[in-house]
């Protein structure tokens, strides 16, 4: 539409020349630009929504997996404590029974104080397990510092790969302190129960099956969201095109106005902005028509008497003579000199 507005500036030139001038000016099509911007915004919103859904789901999965992992760590801590005490032969059976109930537990290993493995138990569906497994010196130092703390475990996992967890926790025993029944000193500092570190427990967890199911659901939700965004973008494009159709309807009337047709009629618009443009164009056409009428009257009439001037008289006389010659008729001329 901008090229037609451009042609108003050069209304005395042919339409093809004004179009060439408009293209040379590098003007863009408003409707295409708005529709392209709307598609771009829809695409950006869709990408951000899908990315937020995926990474948000990953974060939720990691939190849930962490909670389950810590619960299993505490229970295996209690179940495996008899390994460090003599005389309990059924502890391995209890551990195997517990591990087989949870397919996410890939391997459980109990370590001595030097980091060497006492026993390593795997889930029945895991397959071959490497029993030659030990803790590194750095892991031993870090886990040993966790004895008696509020969070007595070391968890290793990443947000990128939330399916695998590796947890190490210390195993310690607490003895009942001397109650001081006979030699109680109220002024002496009272210590807690003595704590003795006896070993460590390590868990390797694999949430692949559960994770794949949830990720599959997230993918389905992402696809559904993408379809909704595409549908909403398509509907929005149609609605926007319908709303901008009033601007497209101005092209032909403006082209006629650029050709000099001041009797052009514009379609009424439902939107206030377009209606203001239509009113401005109608006012412009009306003022141009009134201006041309005034100029035509000044060109053909005498300013003093208001009668037609000599030039107009000669044009009318030549037209009358030409009509009489074609029709082979006769005519008469009455001349009155009002100045005498």
Count of alpha and pi helical runs: 9
Rounded to an integer, what's the Rg over CA atoms?
A: 47 Å
The assigned structural class equals alpha+beta
Give the amount of beta strand, in percent.
5-15%
Molecular shape:
rod-shaped
**SSE order, one letter for each helix or strand:** HHHHEEHEEEHHHH
Low-confidence spans: 1-24
Average pLDDT, rounded to a whole number, is 75
What is the spatial order of strands in the main beta sheet?
2-1-5-4-3
Number of strands: 5
Calculate the terminal CA-CA distance, rounded to whole Å.
Answer: 59 Å
Largest sheet: 5 strands, antiparallel
Range of helix content: 40-55%
Q: List the quaternary state of the chains.
A: single chain
């Amino acid at each position: 539409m901008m090229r037609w507005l451009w042609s108003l500036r050069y209304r005395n030139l042919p339409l093809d020349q004004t179009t060439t001038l408009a293209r040379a000016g590098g003007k863009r099509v408003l409707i295409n630009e708005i529709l392209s911007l709307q598609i771009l915004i829809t695409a950006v919103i869709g990408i951000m929504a899908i990315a937020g859904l995926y990474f948000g789901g990953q974060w939720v999965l990691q939190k849930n997996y962490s909670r389950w992992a810590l619960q299993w760590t505490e229970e295996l801590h209690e179940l495996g404590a008899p390994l460090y005490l003599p005389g309990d032969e059924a502890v391995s059976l209890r551990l195997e029974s517990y591990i087989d109930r949870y397919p996410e537990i890939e391997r459980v290993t109990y370590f001595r104080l030097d980091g060497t493995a006492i026993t390593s138990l795997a889930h029945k569906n895991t397959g071959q397990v490497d029993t030659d497994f030990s803790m590194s010196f750095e892991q031993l130092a870090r886990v040993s510092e966790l004895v008696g703390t509020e969070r007595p475990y070391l968890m290793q996992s990443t947000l990128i790969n939330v399916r695998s967890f590796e947890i190490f926790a210390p195993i310690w025993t607490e003895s009942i302190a001397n109650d001081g029944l006979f030699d109680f000193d109220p002024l002496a500092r009272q210590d807690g129960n003595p704590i003795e570190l006896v070993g460590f427990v390590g868990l390797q967890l694999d949430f692949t099956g559960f994770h794949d199911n949830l990720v599959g659901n997230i993918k389905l939700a992402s696809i559904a969201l993408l379809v909704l965004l595409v549908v909403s973008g398509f509907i929005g494009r149609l609605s926007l095109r319908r709303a901008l159709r009033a601007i497209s309807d101005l092209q032909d009337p403006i082209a006629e106005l650029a050709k000099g047709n001041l009797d052009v009629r514009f379609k009424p618009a439902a939107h206030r902005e377009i209606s203001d443009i239509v009113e401005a164009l109608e006012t412009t056409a009306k003022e141009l028509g009134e201006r041309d009428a005034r100029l035509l009257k000044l060109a053909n009439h005498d300013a003093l008497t208001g009668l037609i001037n000599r030039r107009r008289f000669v044009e009318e006389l030549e037209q009358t003579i030409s009509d009489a010659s074609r029709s082979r008729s006769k005519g008469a001329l009455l001349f009155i000199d009002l100045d005498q």
